[in-house]
Design goal:
Elements: H1 8-15, E1 21-22, H2 25-34, E2 38-43, H3 55-66, E3 70-75, H4 97-114, E4 125-128, H5 130-133, H6 138-144, H7 151-156, H8 158-165, H9 172-175, H10 177-192, E5 196-200, H11 204-218, E6 223-227, E7 240-241, E8 244-245, H12 255-263, H13 270-277, H14 282-289, H15 295-312, H16 314-329, E9 339-342, E10 351-352, H17 353-359, H18 366-374, E11 378-380, E12 383-384, E13 391-392, E14 401-405, E15 409-415
Parallel strand pairs: 2-3, 2-5, 3-4, 5-6, 9-15
Antiparallel strand pairs: 1-6, 7-8, 10-13, 11-12, 11-14, 14-15
Helix pairs in contact: 10-11, 12-15, 12-16, 13-14, 13-15, 15-16
Length: 416
């Protein structure tokens, strides 16, 4: 990246590693200097919460507002009914309107922690593309919008091409997704003066389509900016762990487990993650990321505290750190550990240790739990578990029992 930006927003994007590509660096930079730039990112409502994989986009919207511009969080109430085929091997399951609305309600809770929704010139807007997509007249849409799209060009986009090259079916429904996303940008520009769409680099083709369509229909100059698709240094997709997605909503992943995810960051990723997921000064991020040996663990705690404070609040971050120190350093039972509360009826005839490992989320299946025990990776009250046949009674659970999988994952089991 040799471009030297004049605007604060572009400087932050480049310095902190958010920028993969931009349709017009200079044009966007000049627009950002001239005045408030409304910019959007679209989020399809396929689950009740976003996960850590979306956090880079949320942080981009946060920096946009912090540098004096207007973030638009666009909920895909309409596009979720179609499903984005980008780089997917299969078609998304179709959701009902009720499921989509419930998911949007869950996702809204996350955004309010990162951006301010108010009536000021830089106040964020929460919009739903169902507002203009649900009432579309098919024939009018084909005539007014569809005529601007070349099928040859659409087939050349990498997201579509990769699916067809593998000879995997791409339904006509999914093929329409990129036209609908392009139309979103047109409508946001027409209704709200939106000048910029941001997204992951897998969205490049969809963003370029929207810019092209808006130029053809409205003759307006608008811009696109993408962030890199993040993988961890060991090649894993960001936000996925052995026990599933790292959700941002408290009810889907506890603040303690969220904190632990960041605390367990690979050494090689610490500096990069500090720049992307916290607001700590860039020079300090680089200093912390360069620490070696046991000192890097303190940098990971700084990372975990800063990210958890943004998502769940300073109190939750402090409680998670205190629990972690108690569990790891003293071998004690922290108050904030994920807790499985069993009803007396569930243990009336006893409950197997394998079931407990699965129910507490420390193992994904009975098979995985048995393998964990066989590999000496499971402990109960800090003592190694040696038999997968162990059955616990109500008497055994009269006091809370601490279960552990490996050195870093723990849960409490209590009787309700």
């Amino acid at each position: 990246m040799t471009y030297h930006p004049k605007s604060d927003f572009m400087r932050v994007m480049i310095e902190r590693g958010f920028l993969a590509d931009c349709t017009d660096y200079q044009g966007l930079d000049e627009a950002l200097i001239k005045g408030v730039v409304p910019a959007y990112i679209g989020f399809d409502a396929t689950a009740k919460s976003l996960h850590v994989g979306s956090l880079i986009q949320i942080m981009m919207l946060r920096w946009l507002q912090k540098t004096g511009h207007k973030p638009i969080t666009l909920m895909g109430g309409g596009t979720t009914k179609v499903g984005d085929p980008s780089f997917r091997a299969d078609e998304r399951p179709l959701l009902t309107n009720e499921q989509i609305d419930a998911n949007i309600e869950g996702i809204k809770q996350v955004f309010a922690k990162y951006v301010s929704y108010d009536d000021s010139p830089t106040g964020a807007l929460m919009l739903n593309n169902a507002e203009w997509l649900d009432g579309l007249n098919y024939l009018e849409f084909l005539r007014d919008i569809g005529r601007h799209f070349s099928v040859n060009r659409m087939l050349s986009f990498e997201s579509v091409k990769s699916r067809l090259d593998r000879e995997q079916s791409l339904s006509f429904l999914e093929f329409n997704y990129m036209i609908l996303q392009a139309y979103d940008f047109l409508e946001l520009n027409r209704r709200y003066g939106c000048l910029l769409q941001m997204g992951g680099s897998d969205q490049w083709g969809n963003i370029v389509n929207g810019i092209d369509l808006t130029r053809r229909v409205l003759d307006h100059e608008i811009y696109g900016l993408t962030s890199p698709l993040l993988t961890t240094s060991d090649g894993k997709k960001m936000g996925k762990t052995a026990d599933g997605a790292v959700w941002l909503n408290t009810e889907m992943r506890s603040p303690y487990e969220f904190w632990q995810f960041w605390r367990n960051t690979n050494d090689a990723d610490v500096g990069r993650f500090l720049k992307l997921y916290t607001e700590i000064d860039v020079a300090e991020c680089e200093r912390l990321g360069a620490l070696a040996g046991s000192e890097i663990n303190e940098a990971k705690i700084v990372l975990a505290n800063a990210v958890t404070t943004l998502c769940h609040g300073a109190e939750a971050a402090a409680a998670a750190e205190a629990t972690a120190r108690e569990v790891f350093e003293k071998g004690g039972v922290g108050d904030d550990l994920p807790t499985l509360t069993l009803a007396p009826a569930e243990v009336a005839d006893g409950i197997s240790i394998v079931q407990l490992l699965v129910k507490s989320g420390l193992a994904g299946s009975g098979k995985e739990a048995k393998r964990l025990i066989a590999d000496n990776g499971a402990r109960m009250n800090d003592a190694p578990l040696t038999s997968a046949a162990l059955v616990l009674t109500a008497e055994d659970l009269a006091e809370p029992v601490k279960l552990s999988a490996g050195k870093k994952r723990h849960a409490l089991v209590t009787l309700g």
